[in-house]
Amino acid sequence: MLIKRKVLRPKDLKKISKYSCDEKIKEAYINYLTNYSFKEFVKYCEENSDKDFPDLIFKFADLQLEKYEPNSLIWVSHVMLNFVIYFDVNLDYGQYYDAYASALQLTVLSCAMKMSIDKVSFGDVPFPESSASCFDKLFSTKPDFKYDLKKDCDLAYNSFNTDFDFEAGQFYALVKGHFDENFVSH
């Protein structure tokens, strides 16, 4: 299950470029929030201009979840999309640990969704493509990034306070296997 932001058409980009608002708002929308309403994002930014800009992006993405029935498939898919948004924003703003944590949380949900949708056991779940892409970006940007994979996998798994059909140790083994195959061990 690959989580992607909506690709804007040239017509959409032209409308955004002509819109009367701060260029930083336009850039943030184009880079991170294309699955959501541009006009709503502009309005939210204008109403909350006293807040830190990355926090504005996070809070706006979180508010979008209120539009959906909690725990529905569409709601979970938007939670997953939001983890991709959190990852990208944190990476771009140099918050590497937060980006890494978002990618781990995305991985937990992606595994759970794959099991649920495809009716497979955890042992049959491949490492999620979206997560692999996030980790590739992280380690390309910050090759010397330091982490404690076991502790961090446990934190990501437990952050949901949900009984998944797999254990934290199984999750750690999946992530460790991917890291061992693709990145220098830390």
Written description of the protein model:
- It is a single chain.
- The protein is mostly helical.
- It contains nine helices and no strands.
- The chain has helices spanning 10-18, 23-32, 38-47, 53-64, 73-92, 96-118, 129-141, 149-158, 168-182.
- The radius of gyration is 17 Å and the shape is globular.
- The model has no long low-confidence stretch (mean pLDDT 92).
**Major beta-sheet overview:** none
Number of helices: 9
Number of strands: 0
User: Nearest-angstrom radius of gyration?
Assistant: 17 Å
Q: β content, as a range?
A: under 5%
Structural class: mainly alpha
**Low confidence ranges:** none
Question: What is the arithmetic mean of pLDDT?
Answer: 92
Quaternary organisation: single chain
Describe the structure concisely for a colleague.
The protein is an all-alpha fold. It is built from 9 helices and no strands.
Which helices and strands appear, and what pairs or packs with what?
Elements: H1 10-18, H2 23-32, H3 38-47, H4 53-64, H5 73-92, H6 96-118, H7 129-141, H8 149-158, H9 168-182
Features:
mainly alpha, 186 residues, 66% helix, 9 helices, globular
